[in-house]
Amino acid sequence: MEADIRRLHELRQQGKGCAQIMMQLALEMKGEENESMIRVMSGLCNGMNCGLMCGAFSGAACMMSYFDSAAAVDMIPELAEWFEDTYGSMNCGDILNDDMGNRVLKCPKLMEQTYREAKEILEEYGFDLTAMAEARWGE
């Protein structure tokens, strides 16, 4: 398992929410810390805490903006198209069939896939997240 994916699952086990994990990965890859930002990101978790916009998607969009806010204007729609094609909806409630208990079954894979897609898009825009992750968490 790649170092960044392993870290994603470690953060999940620590109780971080989907959007928080995406931003925590970005911060750590850049060698930065910002607990206030991670706390704020909790407002996007669990579909903004009411089953709306998926926190993994919104967190990945924030991660893209964190790396390059100007390019994010083009990157985020690309991620959104992939997300909707893959999951059929952008809404947490729809993805989980309006049962938040389904998070345990669906969210780990969804977070991993969304992170991978965001990472791939960022790499297309010149950010070598693979090298950054290996430098940060590599063995």
Entry summary:
With about 140 residues, this protein is mainly alpha-helical. The chain contains 9 helices and no strands. The protein is globular and about 40 Å long.
Strand content: under 5%
Order of helices and strands: HHHHHHHHH
> What integer value in Å does the Rg equal?
14 Å
Helix/strand/pairing category: mainly alpha
Tally the beta strands: 0
User: Fraction of residues in helices?
Assistant: over 70%
Number of domains: 1
In whole angstroms, the N-to-C terminal distance is 11 Å
Shape: globular
Taking pLDDT < 50 over at least 5 consecutive residues as the criterion, the unreliable ranges are none
**Count of separate DSSP helical elements:** 9
Major beta-sheet overview: none
Please tell me the overall pLDDT: 92
Pfam families: C_GCAxxG_C_C
Organism: Hominifimenecus microfluidus
Protein name: C-GCAxxG-C-C family protein
